[in-house]
């Protein structure tokens, strides 16, 4: 299962709309880097954040998720409380080819600050904006910047297309836009 290089990612974005909007080269000056890299694509956090809070003593239940467990903020920066968690989504919209599996990894700049991005797969033929889960593992408040790099996507090409893709089974997170909350 080879990892796909920048030339393939660029071609797939241009010819098949795999990533929109697509940034052809890595942007780094004064920002946390984003855009095309050697063997991946660094996606940006949008300016919408859902911060988990315990103000209403809500219980987080993936089978019966309640929005009472978080507050929504929109803006250029999100302050994640100590030992807390936030959801955001990518600026970019992804369309994954049938013979490709994508893995999302956190950026080292944030990891060095104690912010961990959940490792998430994007399955063959999934499409949408990616909901990003960020944990603040520190005892201090931490900042996340909108419209700057938040994670990197690695594109792994399968030996052959799968028998059943995410689109074939009509996955519950297909074509999501914005932060998609847990669904059963």
From TrEMBL:
Sorted UniProt keywords: Hydrolase, Nucleotide metabolism, Nucleotide-binding
Protein known as: dCTP deaminase
Function description: Catalyzes the deamination of dCTP to dUTP.
Source organism of the structure: Neoroseomonas alkaliterrae
Subunit structure: Homotrimer.
Pathway given in the UniProt record: Pyrimidine metabolism; dUMP biosynthesis; dUMP from dCTP (dUTP route): step 1/2
EC number of this enzyme: 3.5.4.13
One GO molecular-function entry: nucleotide binding
InterPro entries: dCTP_deaminase, dUTPase-like_sf, dUTPase_trimeric
Pfam families xrefs: DCD
Reactions catalysed: dCTP + H2O + H(+) = dUTP + NH4(+)
Superkingdom of origin: Bacteria
Residue positions binding dCTP: 107-112, 152, 166, 172, 176
Family (UniProt): Belongs to the dCTP deaminase family.
Gene Ontology terms: biological process: dUMP biosynthetic process; dUTP biosynthetic process
Residues the record marks as active site: 133 (proton donor/acceptor)
């Amino acid at each position: 299962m080879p990892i796909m290089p920048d030339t393939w990612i660029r071609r797939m974005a241009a010819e098949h709309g795999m990533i929109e909007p697509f940034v052809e080269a890595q942007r780094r000056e004064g920002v946390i880097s984003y855009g095309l890299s050697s063997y991946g694509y660094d996606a940006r956090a949008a300016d919408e954040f859902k911060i988990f809070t315990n103000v209403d003593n809500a219980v987080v239940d993936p089978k019966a998720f309640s929005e009472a467990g978080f507050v929504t903020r929109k803006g250029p920066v999100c302050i994640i409380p100590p030992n807390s968690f936030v959801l955001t989504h990518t600026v970019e919209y992804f369309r994954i080819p049938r013979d490709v599996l994508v893995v999302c990894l956190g950026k080292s700049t944030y990891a060095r600050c104690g912010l961990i991005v959940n490792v998430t797969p994007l399955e063959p033929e999934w499409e949408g904006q990616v909901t990003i889960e960020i944990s603040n593992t520190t005892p201090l408040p931490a900042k996340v910047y909108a419209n700057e790099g938040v994670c990197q996507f690695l594109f792994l090409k399968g030996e052959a297309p799968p028998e059943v893709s995410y689109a074939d089974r009509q996955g519950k997170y297909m074509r999501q836009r914005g932060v998609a909350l847990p669904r059963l």
